[in-house]
Amino acid sequence: MIELAHYIRNSFVESIHYGSMAIFDGSKITAFGDIDSEIFPRSATKPLQASAMVRLGLDLPDRLLALSCASHSGSEVHRRAAKEILNSVRLDVDSLQCPTDRPYGDAERRAYGDQQPARDVHNCSGKHASMIATSVINGWDINTYRDPVHPLQIEIKKEYLDASGTTSTHVAVDGCGAPIFSMSLKGLAKASSAVATGSTPARARVFEAMRAFPEMVGGEKRFTTEAMRLIPGLMVKEGAEGVEIAALADGRSVAFKVSDGSMRAIPVVLIAALSRIGVDVSTLHELAHTPVLGGGLKVGEIIAAIG
């Protein structure tokens, strides 16, 4: 592990976030820390999951395909899109097997009011709706689509292995209830590059959809969405427990994990990583600014330790 970020209070390093990072220039991997041990990449592999589903016949408009890759905020736009995916195969939200939830963002929560938690609000509802739709298209059982030995999940794992060129030795239940397969950071960086370069027609479609509709991938005022809006040709996706990927159409990519699982350091670390691979990140600094407060006033900030 290496130091990825420092939490600074009054010029004093109060906390350190450790982790590992893989940087891929399209042909060569550079390691910072341990990039060979497997991790659970969590939602950072949603573009790969969506690529597998497109390969299997899922044919959605880009707006809805972007939601398949999303950890969305649960806005009305997101909820309506999840329902559209299900309606395309004559199903409704009762088919979803993700947990119920309330919206992620403050504005979305206010708009949602006192409605009960619902499955279509869950940040992974687009992925689950697409898994169900893909199962219907292929004549597979929709009641067991989350089972690791379901034909869909077997194909998703194949997509992981093909895109990453590495192995996957562990499977677990992700927070949304779907399977998550392990992958090294080296493999994750290569796989993300494979999506961004459009190494297959399905991966090209996913990249184009995420780029065309970044607001469907995250939500308004979300770092993932704003970063894709501000940097032409950039694909960004976060995963729970401190995982992040970013990739460009020319093959450059980064993948890292904050070892303690914290998400607060991700923006500054990603900006430092993108700068290292030659991306102009001048438009992103304001997005990543995270003040450390004392007595209600700024007394420090989180800064990247890798540059």
Please describe the structure with a list of short key phrases separated by commas or semicolons:
307 residues, Beta-lactamase, eight-stranded antiparallel beta sheet, two-stranded antiparallel sheet, 12 helices, Asparaginase_II
Describe the structure.
This protein is of the alpha+beta class. The protein has one domain (about 1-75, about 155-305): Beta-lactamase (3-Layer(aba) Sandwich). The protein has twelve helices and twelve strands. The protein has helices at about 45-55, 60-70, 75-85, 105-110, 125-140, 150-165, 185-195, 200-210, 215, 225-230, 265-275, 285-290, and strands spanning about 1-10, 10-25, 30, 40, 170-175, 180, 185, 235-240, 245-250, 255-260, 290-295, 295-305. The strands form three sheets. Strands 1, 2, 3, 8, 9, 10, 11 and 12 form an eight-stranded antiparallel β-sheet that branches. A hairpin with a 2-residue loop joins strand 11 and strand 12. Helix 2 (about 60-70) crosses helix 5. The protein starts with a strand and ends with a strand. The model has no long low-confidence stretch (mean pLDDT about 95). InterPro entries: Asparaginase_II (IPR010349). Pfam families: Asparaginase_II.
